[in-house]
C-alpha cells in the first residue's frame, strides 16, 4: 500500500497514565535535560471524514522538535473503540483538525523528555488523559502536562485499555447512586468494554448485576464468560419484556441504577425495571435511536435520567490530579487483585490495520481489536 507523507500534523495532546517501574501511581519525578530527537513516525492518518476502511491510510509523519516541556513517547499498544470510529466518521462530539491520526486511547513509553519536565521520566509508560491525541502511531511528541503515570505492575493490555472503559464504569457506579453490597444494577451492552468492567467492579463491591445482551449464535458461551467475570444474571434483550423479570426480582431488589449504552427500546425497558427514585445513566447509543421515557416512570416512580461522558469528567477534573489519581489507584488495585481484567483482545500489527478495522466494525465481535506498534 502506498505511503502517505504528512508534514507535521498539529493536533491536541492528550495522554493520561504513564506506567513506570515504581509501585505508586501519579508521582512526579524530576526530569533531566535531553537533546531533542528528530525522526519519523508511522501512523494511521485520515485527511477526510468517512468510513474508516476507506479513509484511513498508513502514513509517515515528520516529528516536531522536542520542546522544554514535551516528551517523546513510543506507543506500544492502542485499542480501537467505538469513539475512535465515530471520530473518523465525523459524528463524535469532538473532532481533531484534519489531517489527523486515529485513536483516543493507548499505552506508550517515554523515550525522551525536555529540560523543564518534572512529571514524567524516561521509561515511564503513558496513556491519554483526554480524547483526540491520535494514538495509532509509533512515535509522538506530547506535552508532559498531559501525561499521568501508572504503576508498571499491571499488564500491558490492562494499561492500554484503562483510560476509557474502566474509568467510565467506575464513575457511573460511584457518582449517581450510593450502591451498597446486595444492591442491584441493570445494564445493556453488557458484553461491551464498559459492560465487562461494570460487571467486575460491581462484583468486587458486592453489587448484583443484571446484564442484557443481544441474542447471538454463541450466547451460551458469552453467558458463561460474563458469569465467570462476576455477572449475577445474563439475559437477552427480549427477556426484559417478559414475565420472568418479576420472578427475578423476588430474589434480588429492583435496580437502583441502570446503565444504558444502547438507547431506543432497550433503554426504555431498563427504565421500567428501576426501583422508585432510581437513576438511568446513558453513556452510549449503539442503536442510534432516541430514548423514550414513559411519563409514568417520571411521575409515579420519580426516576432520574442522566448522561455521562468520561472525557467531560476528565476535563472537569483537569486541575484536580487527586481525583484522577484516586480513580486510577482504585482501578489498579482491582487489577492487581485479579478482580479487573481487560476485555478479551485481539492484537494486530499496525501494518495490518485494515483487518483490525474490519473486525472492529462487525456485529457480535467478542474481542477488542488492539493495534500493536
From TrEMBL:
Keyword Magnesium listed: no
Segments forming domain Enoyl reductase (ER): 59-371
Keywords, ordered alphabetically: Fatty acid biosynthesis, Fatty acid metabolism, Lipid biosynthesis, Lipid metabolism, Mitochondrion, NADP, Oxidoreductase, Transit peptide
Molecular function per GO: enoyl-[acyl-carrier-protein] reductase (NADPH) activity
Record Gene3D superfamilies: Medium-chain alcohol dehydrogenases, catalytic domain (3.90.180.10), NAD(P)-binding Rossmann-like Domain (3.40.50.720)
EC number(s) stated in the UniProt entry for this protein: 1.3.1.104
Protein localization: Mitochondrion
A Gene Ontology biological process term: fatty acid biosynthetic process
Any matching Pfam family: ADH_zinc_N
Keyword DNA damage applies: no
SUPFAM superfamilies cross-referenced by the UniProt entry: GroES-like, NAD(P)-binding Rossmann-fold domains
One GO term describing the cellular component: mitochondrion
Record-annotated membrane-spanning stretches: none
Protein name: Enoyl-[acyl-carrier-protein] reductase, mitochondrial
Species the sequence originates in: Pygocentrus nattereri (Red-bellied piranha)
Gene from which the chain derives: MECR
